[in-house]
Write a structure and sequence with these properties.
Distance between the termini: 29 Å
Oligomer: single chain
Strand content: 5-15%
Radius of gyration: 18 Å
Number of helices: 13
Bound molecules: zinc ion
Length: about 250
Amino acid sequence: MIITTSRLLRDLAANSLHPPDHSRLAAPIVAAILLTLPVQGRSQFQSLSTSVLNTDPRAFLACLKNQKQPVSAELRAAAVASFEASLPDGGEITDLSQAERRKLAALSRVLLIHQRDSVYEIRVLALPQAAVGFYARAVLWISRPALDLLNTEQLQGVVAHEIGHDYLWEETRAAQQGKDYPRLREIELFCDAVGMMTLKSAGLSASHMLASVERLADFNQPRFGTPLNAESYPSLAQRRTWARQVIRWAAGKY
Ligand SMILES: [Zn+2]
């Protein structure tokens, strides 16, 4: 997992906004070293976000796409089979309305940016919470409350965030297994940046990414309280601050 993250950071450093300035270039390199150490706390969050902000925003998505590990047909089939086997009877909803189908069809606009439109299986689940998730780099699942609650652009926003997890899949899994909450929060913020840049690249407003997170939280919080995995996520305040930084960076103002 460390190798992939370091490689990603090296690629981001290679696309630095400030290549002639060695002191600036040093930041992503130091960050890559930091990520190889079992450092707990904010330094990891700062290292990955610093790397994002030091990258030329015009090169960011291309840089990520160069990192992409292909999902083989076998891996995909195995992931889908294991996902289906884990569902209870009636867990998947297939009798979708026209409006719901239209929203799902509109996801191709963001998936196409990453050549993922024909890779992910999209499934709608009968869950009480409004939630969207990504399974084994092959299945994007959307609960029906999320499908109905979010408008088309917000659904595109949350799916654009999930695509970020495809690039850091091994890191996400390792951090989950190791209960490395600082790293999980760092990964979430990185995926927020991927989501926002994906929306921008698709000709949509980057603001839909965070709007979707806020809308899901507004639905879930009063009904289900604080989620058990809350420690894995940055606070909404941190995500808003980071989103403002990403928007400034993407506009060339950082
Ligand atoms: Zn996430």
